[in-house]
Amino acid sequence: MAIERIGVVGAGMMGAEIAYIFALSGASVKLSDASVEALARARARHEALLTKAVEKGAIDRDGADDVLMRLEGTTDLADFADRDMVIEAVFEDQEVKGGIFKRLDDILPADCLIASNTSSISISVLASYLSEARRPNFMGLHFFSPVSRMKLVEAISAFETDPAALKRAQDACEAAGKVAIPVKDVVGFAVNRLLMAFFIEANKLVEEGVATPEDIDTACRLGLGHPVGPFKLLDEVSNPLALQVMDILHDAYGERFHPPLLMKQMVHSGRHGRKAGRGWYDYRGGA
Fold first, then answer.
1. Site annotated as Important for catalytic activity: where (predicted)?
2. Is 17 a residue of the active site?
3. Are 85 and 8 in contact (CB under 8 A)?
């Protein structure tokens, strides 16, 4: 059964771009947020992405207008009562996410797929916030930022996820141009465990005076073929979010994911990354 009506909860950068890629693929998408301002920013992001796509010749202006028509913002989760699949993409906090799932439980159609875009919280734990009848249709769909460019999605089953439901969700992601790989439900899944270990070791190299953040970024680009180095990437994803994920992994796996002191200092001193104007690099001049 095709998934044609999609809901996304959370109009931050992740949620806005998840909504965008599904609308681009032809789905009807409702994007929900408690903040009207967040919805307005998401709309501006959609318009900017489509403008770039038109300039590159990837879509014509009429096609771009059609995509915008398929994107609808709402502050009321009750508007999701007709959705085929809903993806939660809010702040990385178990109780916040759990509260949303409890509300959705009373709203969504019985056969609606429900997914979390969590980057680190156990899918089986999040499933516990839903009624038992809904758990077979619940899974994790971990997208990567920026969603409009990154093709990977980690598709994660909870204890009770129906394999057929997971396959439907994977197919929907594939239809939106993504590659959805199955990953076991462990804290941090696959990519974030690798990525946080990478960030931690990069911090240690700076703490030990082995090299500067700028030189480590250069080394990773030219020596490892990475498109961007770890410190530029930290500034993009935000240092507070990375530290939060490190803390979650540290609780789950112990000392190998112990957050470096330097990382904590960066966050507590307000050097949060590009959006804050300053992180490992200074963006206040527009860099």
1. 142
2. no
3. no
